[in-house]
Design brief:
Strand content: 5-15%
Helix content: 25-40%
Oligomer: single chain
Number of strands: 4
Distance between the termini: 31 Å
Shape: globular
Number of helices: 5
Largest sheet: 4 strands, mixed
Order of helices and strands: EHEHHHEEH
Radius of gyration: 15 Å
Length: 119
């Protein structure tokens, strides 16, 4: 599952990388089909990352809502905030089995998704 915001340059770059590496994905728009609290909770647990890493801290909406000051709230409150607007979630998000990747880092994605070449 590849969750993206179509206008996001990083998401487009990640989508192209997936295509170039012949990785088929189901695409979901993070704004029109926001992740639910339950989905986010599962993804956060699978990723092993703290919930704060799932926030799009560079986004205008994050800044408008002054979430920097709220990032220390309880996990339940942070899940509610994240699920309220997909645009608040760091993107892209890629979910494959027990692997959950946020943001696009080619090296990290290659390590997680590509089979090592045999020498």
């Amino acid at each position: 599952l590849f969750i993206q915001y179509p206008k996001c340059g990083t998401c487009r770059k990640a989508a192209q990388w997936l295509k170039n590496n012949h990785i088929d994905v189901t695409i979901r728009d993070i704004v029109s089909d926001n992740p639910t609290q339950q989905e986010l909770l599962v993804w956060i647990e699978k990723s092993g990352k703290p919930i704060q890493k799932f926030f799009n801290t560079n986004g205008l909406r994050y800044k408008e809502l002054n979430l920097k000051d709220k990032i220390k709230n309880t996990q339940q409150e942070l899940l509610r905030i994240l699920a309220s607007e997909g645009i608040l979630v760091k993107r892209p998000v890629l979910i494959s089995g027990n692997t959950v990747l946020t943001g696009f880092n080619e090296e990290e994605w290659s390590k997680a998704l590509l089979k090592p070449e045999k020498v």
